[in-house]
Amino acid sequence: MSGNAMRLQAIRDVEAYVPPAVSFTDAETPGQIFGENVFSSVVMQKRLPKLVYKSVMATIEHGAMLDPLVADAVASAMKDWAMEKGASHYAHVFYPLTGLTAEKHDSFLEPVGDGTALAEFAGKTLVQGEPDASSFPNGGLRNTFEARGYTGWDVTSPAYVLENPNGNTLCIPTVFVSMTGEALDHKTPLLRSQQAMGEHAERILRLFGHVKPAKVVSFCGPEQEYFLVDRHFFLARPDLLNSGRTLFGAKPPKGQEFDDHYFGAIPERVLGFMMDTERELFKLGIPAKTRHNEVAPGQFEIAPMFERGNIAADHQQLLMTTFKTVAKKHGMACLFHEKPFQGVNGSGKHVNFSLGNNQLGSLLVPGDNPHDNAQFLVFCAAVIRAVHKYAGLLRVSVASATNDHRLGANEAPPAIISIFLGDQLADVFEQLAKGPATSSKDKGTMIIGVDTLPQLPTDPGDRNRTSPFAFTGNRFEFRAPGSMQTVSGPMVTINTIMAESLDYIATDLEAAVAAGTDFDTAVQSLLTQIITDHGAVVFNGDGYSDAWPIEAEKRGLANLRTTLDALPELITESAMDLFDKYKVFNHREMHSRYEIGLEQYALTISVEARLTLEMATTQILPAAVRHQTEVAVNVGALKAAGVDADTAPLLAVSGPIAELRDALATLKAALAEETGHEALAEAEHARDALLPAMAAVRTAADALEEIVADDLWPLPTYQEMLFIL
């Protein structure tokens, strides 16, 4: 099907679109279906013996060791509940270092001797599974001939039933570890890091007079940006299908320069998709809150409410799976790549971080007078210290070949890690650098000048969208993560560096109090010291300005522009010792993640390079030659008829065709070049040889797109993909 035919079919589909009947009825409100497919604490309380329920909740709420004796009772109740909901199978769900979700499905039915089968699900089956570990990235932790790996039930993340038209499945969130107990996934280190952070946060709370503070956990509220394209276009683009981004595409006449898409009216087809996804998310207990158009045409965002970091990470993975499934149902494809369209704003996944417990709520709420809120200032100072001291680790937590296309552009913060505090907090910490803080800037009132509108309260400071790590009122927003990555990576890093910073603060204050120093005096001294030593990381200005990298260098802040610049941060002695001290990663696990980072980087680019070569050779070059032939035939016919024909169109095509052939030869040679199969060498070759060669092919191909006849061009264009929805 030609590009023109695909466009016409997509237009017909849009015009004929009727949203599936998924709206809520009077008998089925959002509140009534929320969590209906989740084996929640409410369900457990109804179905489990009282002592078993108390034991499980002690693990979930207070971090108590899970009693293995309760597993059989939980497994039996979970099986009965799931089968009542139509489940025939169960799946241990885990999150390997591919960044995707993995599932191992087994039937509840087990044969018995008389030729029949019984539904069985024992506690040992719930607690532990054994998928093949040799086929997942492990960075040298396992040999290819060593296959044994284990999944282990994560009781803190609720099981759920995943619906399918042909039958439902009970899904059990699990960790995934090697036979030696080393992490092969994203969940295990997240649980370890949250435990470490909570332990030292509770030490500080005890110093502030909370005798038996409830378990402190980290909270996460990830904002998910994504693109939608008509499925006809998606399937007609091998680059989108295989790599998630367009490797070719000329700039359309209209892009995002009018800013007319941002928060605009949501197209009916997209709104139908959104409502359908939200209904599915509600059933799975995922608190979808906000939906809107994003800046780029065809780009949108969903923001859920805050949850415990571990659950938020699981829900994010489930959200992405749900979006892709539902988009297909609505005749679209959902793109999570950080930069699916060159020259158009890319997508991020802002990780909103806070910490707290069920007694005190968030510990990052400043109150009306933050200068007088010592407990808040201590936790805020811990963040400042952690981000400054371990900026490199934060940067590497968001490093990938795909996110490299986005970081530092106008849709994302720069690769320089800094903190935005806002006018009010910046003023308080400036006071602390000189001595006690005695005042806080007040909130203001906005007088709009319309009698029918009320006076609106304003915050004491603006927000800063160019800051990688910004305080936004009661949390910090890490804006650098990419839309395609799991939030577990950034959360592991934040939790771990916070554990170290809170440990440092607690130890300092405990020693001061033990030495007879007045506690308030000790706090004041510590805050002054932290902002003096680490205040260089606080920057409230424009992170996009040309002056900022120069200023950042003067402050000693690193600018790790690419993934290969950032990855060595994982294997510095200080980084390995940090993660080892707080029992998040041992040295082998850190090295494995470094090796996997290199491998994933090289693989991503090499796949794109092969796609570039294939598409340009088999689709773009033949189309250009056909167009050239048609022009030549027409010119020849006109000359034969005695008409003075213009040969300029023929020459216009010939130049880019020659450039394309030369660029393809260079790319083909780069792909054939041997690098010795060493991870770092392959990654460097991908960066230094493949990426420039691909760029040259694209430049020539995009020039041809602006010349070749529309009915001959083989690929859906940016103009079509971004605006036909």
From TrEMBL:
Molecular function via GO: glutamine synthetase activity
All residue ranges annotated as the GS beta-grasp domain in the record: 88-181
GO BP terms, alphabetized: glutamine biosynthetic process
UniProt-listed Gene3D superfamilies: 1.20.120.1560, Glutamine synthetase/guanido kinase, catalytic domain
Family designation: Belongs to the glutamine synthetase family.
Protein name as annotated: Glutamine synthetase type III
Domain of life: Bacteria
Entry-linked InterPro entries: Gln-synt_C, Gln_synt_N, Gln_synth/guanido_kin_cat_dom, Gln_synth_cat_dom, Gln_synth_gly_rich_site, GS_Type-3, GSIII_N
One Pfam entry name: Gln-synt_C-ter
Ranges for domain GS catalytic: 186-620
